From TrEMBL, chain B:
It comes from Haloarcula salina. The keyword Iron applies. This is (2Fe-2S)-binding protein. GO terms for molecular function: 2 iron, 2 sulfur cluster binding; metal ion binding; oxidoreductase activity. The lineage of its organism: Archaea, Methanobacteriati, Methanobacteriota, Stenosarchaea group, Halobacteria. Residues 1-76 form the 2Fe-2S ferredoxin-type domain. Residues 157-178 are annotated as: Disordered. InterPro entries: 2Fe-2S-bd, 2Fe-2S-bd_dom_sf, 2Fe-2S_ferredoxin-like_sf, 2Fe-2S_ferredoxin-type, Beta-grasp_dom_sf, Diverse_Oxidoreductases. Keywords: 2Fe-2S, Iron, Iron-sulfur, Metal-binding, Oxidoreductase. Pfam families: Fer2, Fer2_2.
Length: 821, 190
């Protein structure tokens, strides 16, 4: 059901009407040529729960991840990185003699070695030119956080490499450090970068103030709207502040890379990456070797969540390989993952709105201060998404401002992490909206639905930071209201039993959620289908399965078009030598962008299948279609199997052809999937302890391709979101030393920490997506913090504003409430 | 130093440093189904059976395994002939990236050996030191409950009828072959 069918809470204002008219005026790229809206009973492959193609390998332990390829390299050297133990300073000297003297040590490299380029680069696996600044070198002479790589060792085994690394003596000239982002903006604060240290194309950089980027955008006239609200009556202004911590990706498989040079003098990387093609380009840049001479392959990946959208360890591995003259494997330890790799950016946010007594939002103003840490990878772009993901939930608000500062400190670097700024932004926006409703005496859900997005709306806020209105978007699919209705029912919103004890109170909170489907205007996916004579197909696709089941999803999309079972599509993916190009697995792009490229490739091949079917059946191709392993005639019912076509096309007497299909996809579109997160909580007023009774997530991801895999994405995303709300975060001592070194200190939820979770899929049809699909992967990482903040507010009337919510925080808030009474 | 042990039924001699952990040594000898996701003894990915007990292989010295019978997830079933726990993980979509799964399946198998009819709470408690980042634990827990049901229905031992941990096949209930008779072929206390 689409939103426009769901009439109960529609309140079409003038803006909505205008947007509707504009929406029907334009044509959607591709929509006219793809009559791909299929009713559930017309679908052969896309919405079945197809077995994940690597599931049997995984459960038997045969799946090979990067480090499992060690047995292919008898002369493999093992790497180890020497890291800075001070937060800020300069390397004066590195004494490698003791390490080099050890038996079994092949190479020790430092920033001063010839094989270690001093070329600047960005580790962000982004499109070219990377929006992130080029501010890294392979090894660092100027260290900016505890954990910065200074040297590295390659040795015959991991133990020798570890011992040698400990023998590398580094002398530093220490400098003052700064750890608080607001303090870092002070002109007297220690300065992390000279302007010459960086190539930065981001807006508003001012390295004298440690400012990596400042940005702002506005729709309408926000100041005038607030002035009018302050001056007049009947409009309320509410301002709130929010704070979020570092979060670790906790990738199950720590970063790992094997680098070697093959007999054709080509440089090969077997690496746990979400971005093989970006990595190839960046290695080429950094080491000044032609792109064609670099091959990046991705085996099974023990998940990425954005941490492997970084070229984090490939350059050191390659430099070690060049120095050692043999294949080198570098694997991160869990300690390095928790201290030196990549994280979700900590942020402080301020949200201000002007709202009429009836509940119409007149103005929204959101500001974020992002702690980028020591380097700028994904600094500005993550901060941009703090606003551009959640603000479009309310696209009809006439006056909107969004601004931010991205600041360097001497702490580990933030980077891409599942949600990409949206978890921070949703915490601010969706907790704020709930607070507004409660202060105005409005129902928090009704208030939000009154203002929330509808099908046909023109969303300008997504492009608020762009000077190009081509990125404004018309919403063509939106199931947000059905998500709310079904979520309310599942959580028991209208019928909540209170505990018997007077000091225990139960409450429910809700957050509306939105994400995107790829980076608008910055994506490219490509695929090739080639037929085998037995009627099966090879699908070569650049898209990267990070463990999500993307390869299975690709096979289902191809199978739906080609009319064969998904298991007849052999997927060859994400190898820069063997597959077409792809930007990689990030920004929730894989189904929407790469999946659409697969569909296009399959349709291209299908045209050839129909031509061959026409010849063999002696009927015109226009009356033919594919299905059930054959080409069949819709008029006569005659059929010829794909296997017969395959053999005839390959070995026929008259004509021969290898049936192939090519597909590309790139677009300015990035349609938002929507969701509603519900949290049911019971608070003990005496202790501040709270128990989560249930989580419900209702998602509109368009047509869910492989619903079981989609559910898995939602449950896993909620897990991360639960951690963000209740238990995650990193801490540092006064000198910037990390206090979290492993799982023992980090609050990752375990099985028994998880409340029951219910997942609801609300189907809409997104006309620009493959068979109506939008993205799902990041959407569910956004909801638990605001929904839990709102649930606690509902239960006991206090507002928690800083993640994660501890019992002590809640107790303090309750004490403050009672003190005020 | 050389240590002798039995790995998945094959007795072998492996070289192990005095400080090396068992997971590292097993991996060096080709047992890549043993995964290492932490720096020792916290994430559960390296769980194996050592003389029938579940141990995190990365959290014990290899020398401690001298003379032991070690079984990894690879001993449970093959892709064409999965153990019921493995099959349930496949059928319930309990695997995503899969890195934690070998350890989780070993732990789940041990649980169902001891307790063929666990409650959801008991499954969650059994898996509590198996860290998973992808699934929210929802489908793995469902898979273990499903596996328990299937095994009770099919009357097979939790180990699929294969001996685990070097116990004599006729000495313990869990080691009984599936067709050994009794009420459930070995998965219960009968």
């Amino acid at each position: 059901m689409s939103d426009s069918d769901n009439a109960s809470d529609l309140d079409d204002g003038p803006d909505g009407v205008r947007a509707e008219e504009e929406a029907t005026g334009g044509t959607v790229e591709g929509a006219a040529r793809e009559p791909d809206r299929k009713a559930p009973d017309e679908r052969e492959a896309i919405t079945t729960d197809e077995e994940k193609d690597d599931a049997r390998q995984i459960v038997t332990g045969e799946a090979r991840y990067t480090a499992d390829y060690r047995d292919r390299f008898p002369d493999l050297a093992h790497g180890k990185v020497v890291r800075s133990d001070i937060a800020h300073g300069h390397v004066e000297s590195v004494d490698t003699s003791a390490a080099e003297a050890m038996d079994g040590v092949y190479a020790v490299i430092t920033p001063f070695d010839d094989v270690v380029p001093d070329t600047l680069y960005s580790s962000s696996g982004q499109s070219y030119p990377e929006p992130s600044p080029w501010d890294l070198t392979v090894l660092r002479e100027h260290v900016r956080f505890v954990g910065d790589p200074v040297a590295a060792v390659a040795a015959e085994d991991p133990d020798t490499a570890d011992r040698a690394a400990r023998k590398v003596e580094v002398e530093y000239r220490e400098r003052d450090a700064v750890f608080d982002p607001e303090a870092a903006l002070d002109e007297d604060a220690p300065q992390l970068f000279e302007t010459d240290d960086v190539e930065n194309k981001q807006s508003g950089a001012d390295y004298a103030r440690n400012l990596e980027s400042h940005f702002e955008g506005e729709l309408g006239d926000v100041d005038a709207a607030f002035d009018a609200a302050e001056a007049g009556e009947g409009v309320h202004v509410v301002e709130t502040e929010w704070e979020t911590p570092y979060q670790s990706h906790c990738v199950p498989e720590p970063h790992a890379t094997i680098a070697y040079t093959d007999e054709d003098d080509r440089h090969v990387f077997i690496t746990a990456t979400q971005v093989p093609f970006h990595t190839r380009r960046q290695i080429s840049h950094l080491f000044d070797v032609p792109i064609r001479d670099v091959r990046v392959t991705k085996p099974r990946i023990g998940a990425g969540f954005g941490s492997k959208q970084e070229m984090a360890i490939e350059p050191i591995t390659f430099a070690l390989h060049l120095a050692a003259g043999r294949p080198v494997k570098l694997e991160m330890t869990r300690q390095e993952e928790f201290t030196a790799l990549r994280f979700r950016h900590p942020m402080r946010m301020r949200m201000k709105t002007a709202v009429t007594e009836e509940g119409d939002i007149e103005a929204m103003d959101l500001y974020t201060l992002s702690n980028s840490g020591a380097y700028g990878t994904h600094g500005m772009t993550v901060a941009n998404n703090v606003g551009t993901k959640p603000l479009p939930i309310y696209p009809r608000v006439p006056n909107v401002r969004f601004s931010g500062d991205v600041v360097h400190t001497n702490l580990p670097m933030g980077a891409a992490m599942r949600g990409y700024g949206a978890p921070q932004g949703h915490f601010a926006v969706e907790s704020h909206m709930d607070e507004v409703a409660r202060r105005l005496g409005l129902d928090p859900i009704e208030f939000r639905l009154r203002n929330a997005v509808r099908e046909g709306d023109l969303d300008r806020s997504v492009a608020i930071l762009k000077d190009d209105d081509r990125f404004e978007r018309t919403i063509r699919s939106c199931g947000i209201r059905e998500c709310v209705e079904r979520g309310k029912e599942a959580i028991g919103y209208d019928d909540l039993d209170q505990p018997d004890e007077d000091h225990r109170h139960r409450g429910v909170g809700m957050a509306l959620i939105a994400q995107g489907s790829g980076v608008a205007g910055k994506e490219l996916g490509a695929a090739q289908v080639k037929m085998n004579e037995d009627g099966s197909f090879h699908l070569q696709v650049g898209g990267v399965d990070t463990g999500t089941g993307a390869d299975t999803m690709f096979s289902q999309i191809a199978a739906e078009v080609l009319g064969c079972p998904p298991e007849d599509v052999v997927v060859v993916a994400a190898d820069t030598d063997l597959t077409p190009f792809d930007y990689g697995a990030y920004a929730s792009s894989t189904t929407y962008i790469s999946g659409r490229a697969v569909k296009n490739a399959a349709e291209d091949a299908k045209e050839r299948l129909l031509e061959w079917g026409a010849t063999l059946l002696d009927e015109p191709p226009e009356v033919l279609d594919t299905g059930d392993g054959a080409v069949y005639s819709e008029e006569t019912g005659n059929r010829v199997s794909l296997e017969e076509i395959g053999y005839e096309a390959t070995y026929g007497d008259d004509e021969r052809e290898h049936i192939l299909g090519d597909g590309n996809h790139s677009t300015d579109e990035s349609p938002p999937p929507y969701g509603a997160q519900f949290v049911d909580v019971t608070v003990n007023e005496e202790t501040g302890e709270y128990d989560l009774n249930k989580l419900v997530f209702a998602a509109d991801c368009g047509v869910a391709i492989n619903p079981a895999l989609v559910e898995g994405q939602i449950e896993g995303g909620e897990h991360m979101s639960l951690e963000y709300a209740t238990s995650g975060g990193l801490s540092f001592d006064g000198e910037g030393n990390p206090e979290v070194q492993g799982f023992r200190q980090y609050g990752m939820p375990r099985t028994t920490d998880h409340p029951p979770m219910e997942t609801i899929l609300v189907e809409t049809h997104e006309p620009t997506g493959p068979f109506g699909a939008k993205s799902i992967a990041e959407l569910p990482t956004n909801g638990v913090p605001p929904a839990l903040s709102n649930a606690i507010r509902d239960a006991v009337g206090v507002r928690l504003t800083e993640l994660p919510f501890t019992d002590e925080d809640l107790r303090a808030a309750l004490d403050a409430r009672d003190g005020d009474d | 130093m050389d240590i002798e042990l039995t790995i998945n039924g094959e007795t072998t001699t492996v070289e192990a440093g005095s400080e090396q952990d068992l997971a590292t040594v097993l991996r060096q000898h080709g047992h890549i189904d043993v995964k290492c996701g932490c720096d020792g003894g916290t994430c559960g990915a390296s769980k194996v059976f050592v003389d029938g007990d579940v141990r995190m292989a990365c959290g014990m010295a290899a020398t401690e395994a001298e003379g032991s019978d070690v079984q990894t997830v690879a001993s449970l079933g093959t892709q064409d002939d999965l153990h019921p726990v493995q099959q349930a993980f496949v059928d319930n979509f309990a695997v995503q990236c899969g890195f934690c799964i070998p350890g989780m399946i070993v732990q789940a198998t041990a649980l169902l050996d001891e307790n063929p009819d666990p409650t959801e709470r008991e499954v969650r408690e059994a898996l509590d030191d198996n860290v998973c980042r992808c699934t929210g634990y929802q489908k793995p827990v469902e898979a273990v409950l499903d596996a328990a049901g299937r095994m009770r229905e099919e009357g097979v031992a939790a180990d699929g009828g294969r001996p685990i941990g070097g116990e004599p096949a006729d000495d313990t209930a869990m080691g009984k072959p599936a067709d050994a008779g009794g009420c459930c072929g070995g998965g219960c206390d009968e």
